[in-house]
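User: quick one, fold this
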Amino acid sequence: MNMTKITLTIMIFLSFWGCAKIAEPAQVMSVNNTALNGYDPVAYHVSFKAVQADKTYVYTYDNVNWNFESESNMQMFKANPTAYIPEFSGFCAYELVEGDLVISDPEFWYIHNDKLYLFENEDNKQEWFRKIDSMLLKGVKAWSLVLHPLETQAEIEANVEATEEAEVLDAAAAHGDE
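Assistant:
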């Protein structure tokens, strides 16, 4: 088990006991105060590729530096940061479901329903999408526990159920527009 995984596992354990500060999503995923190891979060959506950006275009959001490959991408992020911040704050979606908070490798990614998911490696990515429906539900539950460790399981399940109902309604509305 690498040091990052150990540290993050301890953080989750402590958060369940109320001993650790609960960080906001953008704060949780930074390494050396730089989100996504310097990858451009907008490029995944507009260029459909992982782009390591230099420090020419940097925007600080929620006390974390976000790097961009272009002024245009930076402006898009500024206009709607939550549209580009990865789900589960950029932690490996697969490992989150397995009970570990593991920093992902920005080269292993996938966009599903306009949401960016990152993974530690290609195997984790493939396994996630092999069982995507159950993994999404488990991921939402696990992430709720990370962000709100003192909520009861019933509250979390109610929030997940409400989210699922909203997604079904959104899908039905989108399907009706075609």
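User: anything notable?
Assistant: Helices lie at 3-16, 25-28, 43-46, 71-79, 93-97, 122-130, 132-147, 153-177.
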